[in-house]
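Thread: Modeling a multi-component assembly for a lab meeting

Hi all, long-time lurker, first post. My supervisor asked me to bring a structural picture of a complex we are working on to next week's group meeting, and I have zero experience with this. I have the sequence lines for every component (370 residues in total). Could someone generate the structure of the whole assembly? Inputs are pasted exactly as I received them:
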Amino acid sequence: MAEGAAQDAFLRIEGVSKSFGSFQAVRDVSLTVGKGEIFSLLGGSGCGKTTLLRMLAGFEEPSAGRIFLDGRDMAGVPPWERPVHMMFQSYAIFPHMTVEENVGYGLKHDKGMSKADRANRVAEMLELVQLTPFAQRKPHQISGGQRQRVALARALARQPKLLLLDEPLAALDKKLREQTQFELMSIQARTGVTFIVVTHDQEEAMTLSDRIAVMDKGEVRQVGSPTEVYEFPNSRFVAGFIGSINTFEATVIARESPHLRLSVPALGTEVLARDVAAVAVGQAVTLAIRPEKLRISRERPEAANALAGTVRDLAYFGKDSLYRLDLAGGGMVQAHAVNARRGDEGARVADWDDAVFVGFDPASALVLVT
Ligand SMILES: Nc1ncnc2c1ncn2[C@@H]1O[C@H](COP(=O)(O)OP(=O)(O)OP(=O)(O)O)[C@@H](O)[C@H]1O
Ligand SMILES: [Mg+2]
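Re: Modeling a multi-component assembly
Sure thing. I ran the full set together rather than chain by chain. Output:
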């Protein structure tokens, strides 16, 4: 799906900005989205996600830049003439209407559609979201997850080419949200409609998306597959926004292909890291390592990088534990480890005050320059 996205460019956003008075809510955003992709806009509150969606839907005109949908310039095209449907942040389904009436609501004003066609479409949509048995119920007689699916069925009934979903699962509790994420993906796969999903939940973005645009203060900071943005963040911001990460000030002291040798004062030792072409020997950089890439052991490991430390703190989560280690060099790291042994007291790999080592591969030591 993500493959060939740039060539297909079903949706092309070129240098789009939006200002409200002197405040710039969206800054020079350029993106392409392929047909049938699930593309997420991920970012904190106020970073411009809804504003960008509203411009795609035609509720706001960009202050600068252009939007092409299926090859057509959207400038001046009103919302109702765009093959786009927006599911709002607080999706409004009508409490006095049945599930069936809600799903058919948007079709009522479609003059070219016969009553029978309308009934067929509604039946098809109810089938798609598995709500056929609930067709005659009112919204208060179904669950939150089911109400969510009513809103989705209503949005899809009009057969948009592009569906914009603004925080579609925010109203659901964690368990239901996880379940609904998979339903959303399966519905998208069956309809082939291109989805743009806004979320501030990074796990949701990772689960749902073919690609993610990470946004900050109106700007897109990185676009990539979930793996790319997690494993290869392009900046300290993206590294810290998605998942947790240990960061240290470092200096490049040598290029030892395919690695870089760094001096890292807080670790009290030199470290081998993944080479990135854009840095020079002598340059100040940030070394970043995800907690789950650090392996805790009691004996000094064979790994290319090994640090000695003491367990200062740990949090036991059942299936895994998070350890906070004081390092001999004076720094501190967080390491994540699966509690893989049998469920006795020894399930953890280490305990409070244990002297341990942490080992990591150069490939998982990231060098960030911005
Ligand atoms: N009509 C408007 N007039 C003035 N400022 C606006 C307007 N709409 C949005 N903004 C501002 O633009 C910024 C981006 O808003 P937007 O709603 O796009 O954020 P968001 O990323 O969707 O945030 P959230 O996750 O909280 O929904 C915010 O600072 C907001 O206050
Ligand atoms: Mg919003």
